Amino acid sequence: MSHRNDTSNCCSFKIPGQRNWQTMGSTEQTTEILLCLSPVEVANLKEGINFFRNKSTGKDYILYKSKSRLRACKNVCKHQGGLFIKDIEDLAGRSVRCTKHNWKLDVSTMKYINPPESFCQDELVVEMDENNGLLLLELNPPNPWDSEPRSPEELDFGEVQITYLTHACMDLKLGDKRMVFDPWLMGPAFARGWWLLHEPPSDWLERLCQADLIYISHLHSDHLSYPTLKKLAGRRPDVPIYVGNTERPVFWNLNQSGVQLTNINVVPFGVWQQVDKNLRFMILMDGVHPEMDTCIIVEYKGHKILNTVDCTRPNGGRLPMKVALMMSDFAGGASGFPMTFSGGKFTEEWKAQFIKTERKKLLNYKAQLVKNLQPRIYCPFAGYFVESHPSDKYIKETNTKNDPSELNNLIKKNSDVITWTPRPGATLDLGRMLKDPTDSKGIIEPPEGTKIYKDSWDFEPYLEILNAAVGDEIFLHSSWIKEYFTWAGFKDYNLVVRMIETDEDFNPFPGGYDYLVDFLDLSFPKERPQREHPYEEIRSRVDVIRHVVKNGLLWDELYIGFQTRLQRDPDIYHHLFWNHFQIKLPLTPPNWRSFLTCCEQNGPGISQECKTT
C-alpha cells in the first residue's frame, strides 16, 4: 500500500515505468512509497538534516539537503535498529547519532563514521513531481522464499517435532527426515571462555548420527564445534552438512582441525534446497555481517520454521511473516565489551549500568521483531552458555544475560504469539501446537529428575591443547612477531597497538613478550611514535594468544572468549582493525616450518632478520 503523511496537499503522480505494486506478484520487484511530502513541505526543507515521520505507519526517515542534491534513508541504524538523533558534537550538521550504541552516520555521504570506515547506509529513491512534491521510494527485490509458494497442509500429530538439545542446537523431525541445527554439545567455545550451561540429553550423539542433514550457521565455535564434530565424525564422517556460501568459508579451518568430514555442502543464498517432496530449506545471509553470518528457513508441507540464529539484521531485515515457528538469540553477553575494558569511563559502575541498559534494549528489540513478524510460536535459544572456568569468575559475575522467560512474557504482553522456553530434551509437536496451543501434549518436557544445568565441566583436555602452544619452538625467536603480523596482512592504518602476554590474572607473564605494532607502516618500534595516533593496549593470556598465533586462528577466540583486557585512547572502536583480525585473516596459517628453518639457517643471533614467507 502507499503510505502517506497527514498532509492535505500531498503530491500525486505516476512514476514512468512503474507498475502498481499492490497488484504485482510476490516474486517480482516492487516499489513501495514510504513517505510523501507536499510542495510546501519540500519548500520548507532546510539545508542539512531533516527528520520526518510517516504518521500513518509510525516509521521515521531522514532527508539531507545540500545545494546539489537530496539524499534520504530510513531512520534506522544498521547495527540493531536504533533511532538516529542529531549529533550535537557535529558542528557541520552532517551526522546523526544512534540512541542505542552511539553509532554515527554521515548523512551527506551515507557512510558510518563511528565505527570509522565500516558500513554504508541503504539509500532511498527521491522522486520529484512537476509540482515540486516529493516521494521517498524503496525498491524491494522479490522475497526468495515466495518462489514456488506452497499452501500449508494439515500436519499429523508427531509428524513435525522439534527437540531442544542445548544452546543453538535443535533436532528437527520433519516427516521421515531428521535435521539438526548448530551442534555444540561438548567442549568449550572461543578457546576456553564459553562452556555449555545446559546438560545435553544423553542420546545427543545418537541423534546426530541419525541426522539426514545438519545446518551450521557460521564459523563461531558455539555453532561450529570441532570437538562435537570430531566425536560425530568418528561414528559417521559422511553425515550431510549444509552451510551458506559466505565470503569467509564456514569450514575454512577444517583441514587444520583434523576432523574427518566428507560430505560438506556449500549452497547459494536465497535458493530453495529440495530435500524431498515435502521438505526444503533456504539459507539467507546477514545484513550486517554477510561475510560470515547466516540464517535459515525450513519449510515442511508449507509450514515455515525461521531460525535467525545470531544474525544482527537477518536478510537485511526482510523476513517471512507469520511463520509457524521462529527461533532467535536473546541473551546478550556474546562480546568482550565492556567487561574486558578498563580506563577512562570504564568503571565498574559504568559497566554494570551499560550492561543492564543493553540487555533491556536487546529484549525490547527482539520483542518488537517478534511482534512485527507475527510467528505462531516463538522460541528464544542460542544464548545458553556460561563462563564456568574459575579464572573467569569476574566475567561470569558481571556479564549478566537476559532471562528467556522475561522475553517471552514481554512478547505475550504485546501479541498473541505462543512462546516456548526450551529445556534440554523438551519436544514441541508442531502439528498439535498449531491446532490447539493448549494441548497438554503440544510440548513434552523432559522426564522428572532430568539434569537441566551442568554443574561440572571437563576443563583439562582443552586447557592442555592451549598450554601446549606456550612452549612451542616458534616463540623462542622474537622474530615471530614480525612474521605473524606480516602474515596477517593488516597495514596502512593509523593505529598503534601494545601487545602484552599475561598470566591467568592478566599480569605480565614472566619471560613473555611485550611489544608495539605500528600498523601505519607495519613496524615494531621500541617506543610509541611522535605523530598523533590512536592507541590500544591488549593484554592476552599467554596460552590463548600463542595458540591463536601458532594456528592462524581468528581473534574472536580472544575477544569474544574474554581472554583479553583492553584499554584504548581515544575511546573509539577501530572497525577495520578488529574486522580484519576477527574475520579477514588469511585462510591458511603462517608457514612456521619455513620460519623455523630460516631461523636455524641464520642462527639465533640474527633470527629477527628471518624473512616472511
From TrEMBL:
Record's subcellular location: Cytoplasm
Primary localization: cytoplasm
Domain Rieske: 37-135
Function in brief: Sialic acids are components of carbohydrate chains of glycoconjugates and are involved in cell-cell recognition and cell-pathogen interactions. Catalyzes the conversion of CMP-N-acetylneuraminic acid (CMP-Neu5Ac) into its hydroxylated derivative CMP-N-glycolylneuraminic acid (CMP-Neu5Gc), a sialic acid abundantly expressed at the surface of many cells.
Protein name: Cytidine monophosphate-N-acetylneuraminic acid hydroxylase
CDD domains for this protein: Rieske_CMP_Neu5Ac_hydrolase_N
One GO CC term, this protein: cytoplasm
Pathway entry: Amino-sugar metabolism; N-acetylneuraminate metabolism
Biological-process GO terms, alphabetical: CMP-N-acetylneuraminate metabolic process; N-acetylneuraminate metabolic process
Catalytic EC class: oxidoreductase
GO molecular function, one term: 2 iron, 2 sulfur cluster binding
One Pfam family here: Lactamase_B_3
Enzyme Commission code(s) on record: 1.14.18.2
Chemical reaction(s) catalysed: CMP-N-acetyl-beta-neuraminate + 2 Fe(II)-[cytochrome b5] + O2 + 2 H(+) = CMP-N-glycoloyl-beta-neuraminate + 2 Fe(III)-[cytochrome b5] + H2O
Entries under InterPro entries matching the protein: CMP-Neu5Ac_hydroxylase_Rieske, Cnh, RibonucZ/Hydroxyglut_hydro, Rieske_2Fe-2S, Rieske_2Fe-2S_sf
Protein family according to the UniProt entry: Belongs to the CMP-Neu5Ac hydroxylase family.
Keyword Transport assigned: yes
Keywords, comma-separated and alphabetical: 2Fe-2S, Cytoplasm, Electron transport, Iron, Iron-sulfur, Metal-binding, Oxidoreductase, Transport
